[in-house]
Every structure is written in structure tokens, then in C-alpha cells.
Amino acid sequence: MSKNKSQLMNSFVSEHVRATHSMSDLQADHDLWYKIRVLIHDLHNIANDHATQARTQNTTDELYVSGPYFTLGEAARIKGTIVPSPILTEIPEFEELEFEGDLEHYLFFEKRKASGDARPCGPYDMGPIYRATFMVSREELKDEKFLGRLRRAGLSEPRTNVTGNVGNNKKMKNGRR
Hints:
It is built from nine helices and two strands; from the N terminus they run H-E-H-H-H-H-E-H-H-H-H. It is mostly helical. It has one domain.
């Protein structure tokens, strides 16, 4: 991404981050909440699924809160959301970090900076953090209804029909659906 485009995105996001939202605001927007769950699912399953890898690797934000998951406006809403601080016991993956692990993480970040990748963490690190931050349980990520929609539709936007209702926008044949 070019420097000018990056600056434009950052100014757009920072302009919209001023308006704060709550977690319940995000949850009330069912399409946005679905996308958040897809991101969390993908961060947890990047090693196992090619579609997940493709979506995650196409993000442009260092925290993965960007396209293909979210529009600029949605990313701004998410980044402007006030969330309760997760308790470390809610993130079991980080309960037992010790000095050696911390040192390995530091060296990892140094290598990452040297490679030009500005992301502070890999997707496998962000998954548990986002799961705790957005209070999404492992069971929600394994829910068959959610997984079925993900397999069927991926991140596709809901279609709005002529009346403005969200629904299946199939072509009409002889005036009928």
C-alpha cells in the first residue's frame, strides 16, 4: 500500500474513531457481528483452511481490522468501540508466559520489523486476544449455523432488494421469484 493511501486510511479511521461505540452496538449490527466472528474464526484456523489463509493474508491493517473483512467505516466503528478489559485468565494461551517465552516473542518481533511487516502479532496470537476482547466463545466459533453460513457465503455482503429489505435478490422470472 502506498504511503499516501495509508495516510488517507489512517486519517479516515482516526476521524471516525472519535465517535465511540459499545460492544452491544456491535452485537446489534448482525452483519458486522458476523464479520467479527469470521475474523476471529479465521485467526484461529489459519493453519487449517486455505480460504481462511487467503482472507487473512489480504488484510492491510496491522491488527487485521480491514478488508476483506470490513469496510473503512466498519473498521472505524470497531476501533472506536469501548470494550471491557479482558482478564488474563480468559486468555489461557497467555497464562503461562515466562521469561524464555517473552524473549522468543521479542526476537520474533525484531525479525518481523526487519522484514517490513508492521503487524505486532501473528494471527495465531491475535485470535485468543480478539476472542476474549469481543467475548466470543469457542462454542460460537464451532456453531454449525455459523459454520454453514461461512462455508456457503463467506464474507459476502447481504443483498438489499428493491424495497430496501435485506434478502435473497434472485432474478425474477415472469414477475416471480
